Amino acid sequence: MASCVQLLGVSPSPYVNRIQMALNLKSIEYEFIRENPQDKTERLLEANPILKKIPVLIHDGKPICESLIIVQYIDDAWNNGPSLLPSDPHDRALSRFWAAYIDDKWIPLYKELKEASTEEARKDIIERICEGLVLLDEAFVKCSKGKPFFGGDNIGYLDIALELTMASCVQLLGASPSPFVNRVQMALKLKSIEYEFIEENPHVKSERLLKANPVLKKIPVLIRDGKSICESLLIVQYIEDAWNNGPSLLPSDPHDAYLARFWAIYIDEKWFPLYKELGASTEEARKETLNKIFEGSVLLEEAFLKSSKGKPFFGGDNIGYLDIALGCYMGWLKVTEEMTGIKFLDQSKTPGLAEWAEKFCSHDAFKEVVPETQKLVEIYKAVQGKGKPASG
Ligand SMILES: N[C@@H](CCC(=O)N[C@@H](CS)C(=O)NCC(=O)O)C(=O)O
After folding, report:
1. What is the CATH number of the domain that holds 204?
2. How confident is the model at residue 2, as a pLDDT?
3. How confident is the model at residue 389 (pLDDT cuts 50, 70, 90)?
4. Interval between CA 350 and ligand 1 midpoint (Å)
5. Same structural domain for residues 364 and 260?
6. Is 249 part of a structural domain of the chain?
7. Is residue 83 assigned to a domain?
8. Which of 12-21, 37-46, 227-236 has the lowest mean pLDDT?
9. Does the Cβ of 202 fall within 6 Å of ligand 1?
10. Which of 37, 72, 220, 223 is the most exposed place for a label (fewest CB within 10 A)?
Protein backbone atom coordinates (compact mmCIF):
# COMPACT_ATOMS: atom_id res chain seq x y z
CA MET A 1 0.00 0.00 0.00
CA ALA A 2 1.35 3.44 -0.92
CA SER A 3 2.39 5.41 2.15
CA CYS A 4 0.74 8.70 3.00
CA VAL A 5 3.11 11.66 2.84
CA GLN A 6 2.08 15.18 3.74
CA LEU A 7 4.19 18.30 3.92
CA LEU A 8 3.10 21.19 6.11
CA GLY A 9 4.69 24.31 4.70
CA VAL A 10 4.38 27.52 2.82
CA SER A 11 5.80 28.47 -0.54
CA PRO A 12 8.15 30.16 -1.01
CA SER A 13 10.12 29.17 2.08
CA PRO A 14 13.75 28.11 1.73
CA TYR A 15 13.39 25.52 4.51
CA VAL A 16 10.27 24.05 2.90
CA ASN A 17 12.06 24.12 -0.48
CA ARG A 18 14.68 21.79 0.98
CA ILE A 19 12.03 19.17 1.63
CA GLN A 20 10.34 19.65 -1.73
CA MET A 21 13.70 19.24 -3.45
CA ALA A 22 14.47 16.02 -1.56
CA LEU A 23 10.98 14.61 -2.23
CA ASN A 24 11.27 15.49 -5.92
CA LEU A 25 14.73 13.96 -6.22
CA LYS A 26 13.34 10.73 -4.75
CA SER A 27 10.15 10.98 -6.90
CA ILE A 28 7.98 10.76 -3.80
CA GLU A 29 4.33 11.77 -4.19
CA TYR A 30 3.10 14.00 -1.38
CA GLU A 31 0.29 16.30 -0.38
CA PHE A 32 1.30 19.90 0.26
CA ILE A 33 -0.67 21.43 3.12
CA ARG A 34 -0.35 25.19 3.29
CA GLU A 35 0.41 26.61 6.73
CA ASN A 36 0.80 30.25 7.60
CA PRO A 37 3.79 30.42 9.98
CA GLN A 38 2.43 33.73 11.34
CA ASP A 39 -0.94 32.22 12.21
CA LYS A 40 -0.28 28.73 13.53
CA THR A 41 -3.05 26.15 13.08
CA GLU A 42 -4.00 23.42 15.55
CA ARG A 43 -2.63 20.96 12.97
CA LEU A 44 0.82 22.58 13.00
CA LEU A 45 0.90 22.89 16.81
CA GLU A 46 -0.03 19.24 17.12
CA ALA A 47 2.56 18.14 14.53
CA ASN A 48 5.42 20.28 15.91
CA PRO A 49 4.50 21.11 19.52
CA ILE A 50 8.10 21.82 20.60
CA LEU A 51 9.37 24.21 17.90
CA LYS A 52 5.99 25.16 16.31
CA LYS A 53 7.65 25.73 12.91
CA ILE A 54 7.24 24.63 9.33
CA PRO A 55 8.27 22.49 7.52
CA VAL A 56 6.84 19.32 9.05
CA LEU A 57 6.75 16.09 7.08
CA ILE A 58 4.01 13.70 8.14
CA HIS A 59 4.72 10.13 7.03
CA ASP A 60 1.95 7.64 7.77
CA GLY A 61 0.67 9.90 10.53
CA LYS A 62 4.07 10.43 12.20
CA PRO A 63 5.51 13.97 12.12
CA ILE A 64 9.19 14.71 11.43
CA CYS A 65 10.46 18.25 12.10
CA GLU A 66 13.49 20.41 11.21
CA SER A 67 14.39 20.65 7.53
CA LEU A 68 17.89 19.13 7.70
CA ILE A 69 16.61 16.22 9.78
CA ILE A 70 13.66 15.71 7.45
CA VAL A 71 16.00 15.45 4.44
CA GLN A 72 18.03 12.78 6.26
CA TYR A 73 14.81 10.97 7.16
CA ILE A 74 13.71 11.00 3.51
CA ASP A 75 17.05 9.47 2.53
CA ASP A 76 16.71 6.79 5.23
CA ALA A 77 13.07 5.97 4.63
CA TRP A 78 12.96 5.71 0.82
CA ASN A 79 15.31 3.61 -1.27
CA ASN A 80 14.16 5.00 -4.61
CA GLY A 81 16.01 7.77 -6.43
CA PRO A 82 19.62 8.81 -5.79
CA SER A 83 21.12 8.62 -2.29
CA LEU A 84 21.24 12.06 -0.76
CA LEU A 85 23.94 11.35 1.82
CA PRO A 86 27.28 9.72 0.92
CA SER A 87 27.69 6.06 1.89
CA ASP A 88 31.09 6.49 3.57
CA PRO A 89 30.57 7.26 7.31
CA HIS A 90 33.23 9.98 7.40
CA ASP A 91 31.83 11.67 4.27
CA ARG A 92 28.37 11.47 5.83
CA ALA A 93 29.64 13.09 9.02
CA LEU A 94 31.33 15.84 6.96
CA SER A 95 28.11 16.57 5.07
CA ARG A 96 26.21 16.85 8.34
CA PHE A 97 28.93 19.03 9.85
CA TRP A 98 28.87 21.54 6.99
CA ALA A 99 25.07 21.59 6.85
CA ALA A 100 25.04 22.45 10.56
CA TYR A 101 27.69 25.12 9.93
CA ILE A 102 25.52 26.65 7.17
CA ASP A 103 22.41 26.81 9.37
CA ASP A 104 23.99 27.73 12.70
CA LYS A 105 26.88 30.01 11.73
CA TRP A 106 26.74 31.21 8.16
CA ILE A 107 23.07 31.99 7.41
CA PRO A 108 22.60 33.95 10.67
CA LEU A 109 25.25 36.39 9.39
CA TYR A 110 22.82 37.50 6.62
CA LYS A 111 20.24 38.33 9.29
CA GLU A 112 22.85 40.26 11.25
CA LEU A 113 23.75 42.14 8.06
CA LYS A 114 20.16 43.29 7.58
CA GLU A 115 20.03 44.55 11.14
CA ALA A 116 23.49 46.19 11.21
CA SER A 117 23.15 49.85 12.09
CA THR A 118 26.63 51.19 11.30
CA GLU A 119 28.78 50.98 8.17
CA GLU A 120 31.59 49.51 10.29
CA ALA A 121 29.36 46.71 11.59
CA ARG A 122 28.21 45.97 8.03
CA LYS A 123 31.79 45.72 6.77
CA ASP A 124 32.71 43.39 9.62
CA ILE A 125 29.76 41.08 8.88
CA ILE A 126 30.45 41.05 5.12
CA GLU A 127 34.02 40.03 5.91
CA ARG A 128 32.76 37.15 8.07
CA ILE A 129 30.35 36.07 5.32
CA CYS A 130 33.26 36.00 2.85
CA GLU A 131 35.42 34.01 5.30
CA GLY A 132 32.54 31.53 5.56
CA LEU A 133 32.36 31.33 1.78
CA VAL A 134 36.05 30.46 1.59
CA LEU A 135 35.48 27.65 4.11
CA LEU A 136 32.50 26.39 2.11
CA ASP A 137 34.56 26.53 -1.06
CA GLU A 138 37.17 24.29 0.58
CA ALA A 139 34.40 21.95 1.75
CA PHE A 140 33.06 21.85 -1.80
CA VAL A 141 36.44 20.83 -3.23
CA LYS A 142 36.70 18.02 -0.62
CA CYS A 143 33.14 16.71 -0.92
CA SER A 144 32.62 17.00 -4.69
CA LYS A 145 35.91 15.26 -5.58
CA GLY A 146 36.06 17.01 -8.95
CA LYS A 147 32.36 16.40 -9.74
CA PRO A 148 29.78 19.20 -10.23
CA PHE A 149 27.92 18.85 -6.90
CA PHE A 150 28.75 18.46 -3.22
CA GLY A 151 27.03 15.11 -3.68
CA GLY A 152 29.28 14.20 -6.66
CA ASP A 153 27.46 13.57 -9.94
CA ASN A 154 24.07 14.09 -8.31
CA ILE A 155 22.59 16.70 -6.05
CA GLY A 156 23.02 15.54 -2.47
CA TYR A 157 22.24 16.53 1.11
CA LEU A 158 24.75 19.39 1.29
CA ASP A 159 23.67 20.81 -2.10
CA ILE A 160 20.12 20.92 -0.76
CA ALA A 161 21.27 22.48 2.50
CA LEU A 162 23.25 25.22 0.76
CA GLU A 163 20.69 25.99 -1.96
CA LEU A 164 18.92 27.87 0.79
CA THR A 165 21.46 30.66 0.59
CA MET A 166 21.77 30.86 -3.17
CA ALA A 167 18.52 32.70 -3.69
CA SER A 168 19.21 35.33 -1.07
CA CYS A 169 20.53 37.81 -3.65
CA VAL A 170 17.04 38.56 -5.02
CA GLN A 171 15.35 41.60 -3.53
CA LEU A 172 12.03 43.24 -4.32
CA LEU A 173 11.43 46.89 -3.53
CA GLY A 174 7.70 47.29 -3.11
CA ALA A 175 4.60 47.84 -1.02
CA SER A 176 2.01 45.11 -0.59
CA PRO A 177 -1.11 47.11 -1.60
CA SER A 178 0.44 47.85 -5.02
CA PRO A 179 -1.02 45.67 -7.79
CA PHE A 180 2.20 46.14 -9.76
CA VAL A 181 4.25 44.83 -6.87
CA ASN A 182 1.75 41.98 -6.40
CA ARG A 183 2.36 41.01 -10.02
CA VAL A 184 6.02 40.45 -9.35
CA GLN A 185 5.31 38.65 -6.07
CA MET A 186 2.94 36.30 -7.90
CA ALA A 187 5.52 35.47 -10.58
CA LEU A 188 8.21 34.88 -7.94
CA LYS A 189 5.84 32.67 -5.99
CA LEU A 190 4.81 30.63 -9.04
CA LYS A 191 8.49 30.05 -9.81
CA SER A 192 9.26 29.27 -6.12
CA ILE A 193 11.95 31.95 -6.05
CA GLU A 194 13.06 33.03 -2.61
CA TYR A 195 13.55 36.79 -2.19
CA GLU A 196 13.83 39.57 0.32
CA PHE A 197 10.93 42.01 0.36
CA ILE A 198 12.04 45.57 1.07
CA GLU A 199 9.13 47.82 2.01
CA GLU A 200 9.11 51.17 0.16
CA ASN A 201 6.63 54.00 0.42
CA PRO A 202 6.01 55.02 -3.22
CA HIS A 203 5.01 58.50 -2.11
CA VAL A 204 8.09 59.16 0.02
CA LYS A 205 10.86 57.90 -2.20
CA SER A 206 13.91 56.53 -0.42
CA GLU A 207 17.48 56.99 -1.61
CA ARG A 208 17.51 53.24 -2.31
CA LEU A 209 14.47 53.48 -4.61
CA LEU A 210 15.83 56.53 -6.43
CA LYS A 211 19.10 54.73 -6.98
CA ALA A 212 17.40 51.52 -8.16
CA ASN A 213 14.88 53.19 -10.48
CA PRO A 214 16.32 56.65 -11.24
CA VAL A 215 14.31 57.15 -14.44
CA LEU A 216 10.73 56.28 -13.39
CA LYS A 217 11.22 56.39 -9.58
CA LYS A 218 8.46 53.81 -9.06
CA ILE A 219 7.97 50.49 -7.36
CA PRO A 220 8.28 47.60 -8.03
CA VAL A 221 11.98 47.15 -8.63
CA LEU A 222 13.52 43.69 -8.64
CA ILE A 223 17.20 43.65 -7.74
CA ARG A 224 19.16 40.58 -8.71
CA ASP A 225 22.86 40.35 -7.96
CA GLY A 226 22.91 44.12 -7.57
CA LYS A 227 21.24 44.81 -10.95
CA SER A 228 17.84 46.56 -11.05
CA ILE A 229 14.91 45.54 -13.23
CA CYS A 230 11.98 47.99 -13.38
CA GLU A 231 8.37 48.00 -14.69
CA SER A 232 6.21 45.15 -13.44
CA LEU A 233 5.38 43.59 -16.82
CA LEU A 234 9.04 43.65 -17.83
CA ILE A 235 10.02 42.18 -14.47
CA VAL A 236 7.63 39.24 -14.95
CA GLN A 237 9.15 38.62 -18.40
CA TYR A 238 12.62 38.85 -16.87
CA ILE A 239 11.68 36.28 -14.20
CA GLU A 240 10.44 33.98 -16.95
CA ASP A 241 13.71 34.39 -18.88
CA ALA A 242 16.06 34.19 -15.92
CA TRP A 243 14.70 31.16 -14.01
CA ASN A 244 13.96 27.78 -15.50
CA ASN A 245 12.16 26.40 -12.47
CA GLY A 246 8.38 26.30 -12.05
CA PRO A 247 5.79 26.54 -14.82
CA SER A 248 6.39 28.63 -17.96
CA LEU A 249 4.57 31.93 -17.68
CA LEU A 250 4.52 32.82 -21.37
CA PRO A 251 3.23 30.54 -24.14
CA SER A 252 5.94 28.87 -26.22
CA ASP A 253 4.24 29.82 -29.51
CA PRO A 254 5.59 33.29 -30.52
CA HIS A 255 2.21 34.59 -31.67
CA ASP A 256 0.46 33.40 -28.50
CA ALA A 257 3.25 35.03 -26.47
CA TYR A 258 2.80 38.24 -28.46
CA LEU A 259 -0.96 38.18 -27.80
CA ALA A 260 -0.38 37.75 -24.07
CA ARG A 261 1.97 40.76 -24.08
CA PHE A 262 -0.47 42.79 -26.22
CA TRP A 263 -3.43 42.27 -23.88
CA ALA A 264 -1.29 42.98 -20.84
CA ILE A 265 -0.47 46.40 -22.31
CA TYR A 266 -4.14 46.96 -23.15
CA ILE A 267 -5.06 46.19 -19.52
CA ASP A 268 -2.45 48.57 -18.09
CA GLU A 269 -2.86 51.42 -20.52
CA LYS A 270 -6.56 51.36 -21.42
CA TRP A 271 -8.73 49.14 -19.24
CA PHE A 272 -7.62 49.57 -15.65
CA PRO A 273 -7.08 53.36 -15.87
CA LEU A 274 -10.84 53.62 -16.60
CA TYR A 275 -11.57 52.59 -13.00
CA LYS A 276 -9.80 55.70 -11.78
CA GLU A 277 -12.16 57.78 -13.95
CA LEU A 278 -15.20 56.38 -12.13
CA GLY A 279 -14.87 59.13 -9.56
CA ALA A 280 -15.88 61.67 -12.27
CA SER A 281 -18.05 64.51 -11.07
CA THR A 282 -21.03 64.21 -13.46
CA GLU A 283 -23.39 61.26 -13.73
CA GLU A 284 -23.06 61.36 -17.51
CA ALA A 285 -19.26 61.08 -17.43
CA ARG A 286 -19.55 58.18 -14.95
CA LYS A 287 -22.00 56.35 -17.23
CA GLU A 288 -19.72 56.83 -20.21
CA THR A 289 -16.76 55.43 -18.24
CA LEU A 290 -18.86 52.45 -17.11
CA ASN A 291 -19.78 51.72 -20.73
CA LYS A 292 -16.12 51.84 -21.72
CA ILE A 293 -15.23 49.47 -18.86
CA PHE A 294 -17.87 46.97 -19.97
CA GLU A 295 -16.80 47.25 -23.62
CA GLY A 296 -13.22 46.57 -22.50
CA SER A 297 -14.36 43.59 -20.43
CA VAL A 298 -16.05 42.10 -23.51
CA LEU A 299 -12.76 42.43 -25.42
CA LEU A 300 -10.95 40.74 -22.55
CA GLU A 301 -13.59 38.00 -22.46
CA GLU A 302 -12.85 37.28 -26.14
CA ALA A 303 -9.10 37.31 -25.44
CA PHE A 304 -9.70 34.90 -22.54
CA LEU A 305 -11.71 32.46 -24.64
CA LYS A 306 -9.01 32.49 -27.33
CA SER A 307 -5.97 32.09 -25.13
CA SER A 308 -7.39 29.73 -22.48
CA LYS A 309 -8.61 27.26 -25.14
CA GLY A 310 -11.24 25.83 -22.80
CA LYS A 311 -8.86 25.63 -19.81
CA PRO A 312 -9.34 27.60 -16.56
CA PHE A 313 -6.65 30.26 -17.06
CA PHE A 314 -5.37 32.56 -19.81
CA GLY A 315 -2.22 30.45 -19.51
CA GLY A 316 -4.20 27.20 -19.93
CA ASP A 317 -4.06 24.77 -17.02
CA ASN A 318 -1.67 27.00 -15.09
CA ILE A 319 -1.55 30.68 -14.26
CA GLY A 320 0.50 32.52 -16.90
CA TYR A 321 1.69 36.00 -17.80
CA LEU A 322 -1.73 37.40 -18.76
CA ASP A 323 -3.41 35.89 -15.71
CA ILE A 324 -0.86 37.74 -13.56
CA ALA A 325 -1.21 40.94 -15.60
CA LEU A 326 -5.00 41.06 -15.12
CA GLY A 327 -5.22 39.15 -11.85
CA CYS A 328 -3.06 41.60 -9.91
CA TYR A 329 -5.90 44.13 -10.21
CA MET A 330 -8.56 41.82 -8.76
CA GLY A 331 -8.00 43.06 -5.19
CA TRP A 332 -8.63 46.68 -6.19
CA LEU A 333 -11.49 45.64 -8.46
CA LYS A 334 -13.22 44.07 -5.46
CA VAL A 335 -12.68 47.32 -3.52
CA THR A 336 -14.29 49.30 -6.36
CA GLU A 337 -17.17 46.81 -6.47
CA GLU A 338 -17.68 47.22 -2.75
CA MET A 339 -17.58 51.01 -2.89
CA THR A 340 -19.82 51.41 -5.98
CA GLY A 341 -22.13 48.39 -5.63
CA ILE A 342 -21.41 47.51 -9.28
CA LYS A 343 -20.39 43.97 -10.30
CA PHE A 344 -17.74 44.45 -12.95
CA LEU A 345 -16.98 40.89 -13.99
CA ASP A 346 -20.58 39.87 -14.30
CA GLN A 347 -21.63 36.28 -14.98
CA SER A 348 -24.30 37.43 -17.46
CA LYS A 349 -22.04 39.77 -19.50
CA THR A 350 -18.64 38.08 -19.32
CA PRO A 351 -19.17 34.53 -17.98
CA GLY A 352 -15.69 33.30 -18.92
CA LEU A 353 -13.96 36.15 -17.08
CA ALA A 354 -16.30 35.89 -14.08
CA GLU A 355 -15.40 32.24 -13.66
CA TRP A 356 -11.73 32.95 -14.30
CA ALA A 357 -11.72 35.66 -11.58
CA GLU A 358 -13.20 33.25 -9.06
CA LYS A 359 -10.58 30.59 -9.83
CA PHE A 360 -7.74 33.10 -9.88
CA CYS A 361 -8.71 34.69 -6.56
CA SER A 362 -8.89 31.32 -4.83
CA HIS A 363 -5.41 30.34 -6.04
CA ASP A 364 -2.56 30.57 -3.49
CA ALA A 365 -0.63 32.89 -5.82
CA PHE A 366 -3.38 35.46 -5.25
CA LYS A 367 -4.41 34.69 -1.67
CA GLU A 368 -0.88 34.76 -0.29
CA VAL A 369 0.10 37.94 -2.09
CA VAL A 370 -2.83 40.34 -2.42
CA PRO A 371 -4.11 41.91 0.81
CA GLU A 372 -7.70 41.13 1.79
CA THR A 373 -10.43 43.39 0.40
CA GLN A 374 -11.26 44.96 3.78
CA LYS A 375 -7.60 45.82 4.33
CA LEU A 376 -7.45 47.43 0.87
CA VAL A 377 -10.66 49.38 1.62
CA GLU A 378 -9.01 50.75 4.78
CA ILE A 379 -5.87 51.67 2.82
CA TYR A 380 -8.02 53.31 0.15
CA LYS A 381 -9.86 55.44 2.70
CA ALA A 382 -6.65 56.40 4.51
CA VAL A 383 -4.84 57.37 1.30
CA GLN A 384 -7.86 59.19 -0.18
CA GLY A 385 -7.90 61.27 2.99
CA LYS A 386 -4.39 62.41 2.05
CA GLY A 387 -5.43 63.09 -1.55
CA LYS A 388 -3.28 60.38 -3.16
CA PRO A 389 -4.26 57.52 -5.49
CA ALA A 390 -4.22 54.29 -3.45
CA SER A 391 -3.15 51.84 -6.11
CA GLY A 392 -0.72 53.93 -8.04
N1 LIG B 1 3.97 50.78 -15.00
C2 LIG B 1 4.53 50.61 -13.68
C3 LIG B 1 3.56 51.22 -12.64
C4 LIG B 1 4.16 51.18 -11.26
C5 LIG B 1 3.47 52.16 -10.32
O6 LIG B 1 2.63 52.99 -10.70
N7 LIG B 1 3.87 52.09 -9.03
C8 LIG B 1 3.34 53.00 -8.04
C9 LIG B 1 2.99 52.24 -6.75
S10 LIG B 1 1.57 51.26 -7.01
C11 LIG B 1 4.40 54.03 -7.67
O12 LIG B 1 5.56 53.71 -7.47
N13 LIG B 1 3.99 55.30 -7.60
C14 LIG B 1 4.86 56.39 -7.23
C15 LIG B 1 4.96 57.39 -8.34
O16 LIG B 1 4.24 57.30 -9.35
O17 LIG B 1 5.78 58.30 -8.17
C18 LIG B 1 4.76 49.13 -13.43
O19 LIG B 1 4.02 48.31 -13.98
O20 LIG B 1 5.70 48.80 -12.69
Report:
1. 3.40.30.10
2. 64
3. low
4. 29
5. yes
6. no
7. no
8. 12-21
9. yes
10. 37
The residue ranking higher by pLDDT, 318 or 80, is 318
Domain stop point among 129, 151, 167: 167
Residues 157 and 173 reside in one and the same domain? no
Please indicate, yes or no, whether residues 290 and 355 belong to a single structural domain of this protein. Answer: yes
159 pocket-lining for ligand 1 (C-beta < 6 Å): no
Residue 135 belongs to a domain: yes
Distance between Cα 391 and ligand 1 center (Å): 8
**Residue closest by Cα to atom 1 of ligand 1:** 231
Task: List the domain range (segments joined by +) for residue 105.
Answer: 89-167
Q: Is the C-beta atom of 49 inside 6 A of ligand 1?
A: no
Cα gap 241→389, rounded to integer Å:
32
Q: Are residues 261 and 148 in the same domain?
A: no
Indicate if 286 and 369 belong to the same structural domain. Answer: yes
What is the 217 CA–ligand 1 centroid distance (Å)? 8
Q: Binning pLDDT at 50, 70 and 90, where does residue 62 land?
A: very high
- Binned at pLDDT 50, 70 and 90, residue 38 comes out as confident
Where is the domain boundary, 49, 77, 105?
77
Distance 388 CA to ligand 1 centre (A): 13
CB 392 near ligand 1, within 6 Å: yes
